[in-house]
Each structure stands twice: as C-alpha cells, then as structure tokens.
Design a protein that fits this description.
With 68 residues, the chain is mainly alpha-helical. The protein has 3 helices and no strands.
Length: 68
C-alpha cells in the first residue's frame, strides 16, 4: 500500500467517524458536509487508481441523495 493510499484511508476513516457522530447527534448540516467531503475523497481516490469500493460500501456509507 502506498503512502498516498494509507493517508487517504486514514482520512476517510476519520471523516466517516465524524459523519457518524454528526448523524447520531442530529446535526444534519454537519453530516451533509462530511458526506460531501467523503465523496470528494472517493473521487480523489478514483482519479489516482485507488479502489475504495473494496473496503467501503459507497452507497451505504454516503447515500448520494440525488447527487451524481
């Protein structure tokens, strides 16, 4: 695993935990911000040939809510 992928995985894990906490606390706006940030990180991973789909279920983790 490259350093890029290691850092990316850590960042995704951190943001996902923050997303989960925001959802549990009922903070919809913060949850949306975290969801968007995760989407950005998933897009960055895809552009760099990192398959996050092998360790993250994208549709379960961050339903796109109509965004493509």
């Amino acid at each position: 695993m490259s350093e890029f992928e290691t850092v990316l995985r850590r960042r995704i894990d951190t943001i996902y935990r923050e997303l989960d906490a925001a959802r549990q606390d009922g903070l919809e706006y913060q949850a949306e911000l975290h969801s968007v940030r995760l989407e950005e990180l998933f897009d960055l991973a895809a552009r760099n040939g990192v398959d996050v789909g092998s360790w993250v279920d994208l549709e379960v983790e961050i339903p796109r809510q109509g965004r493509f």
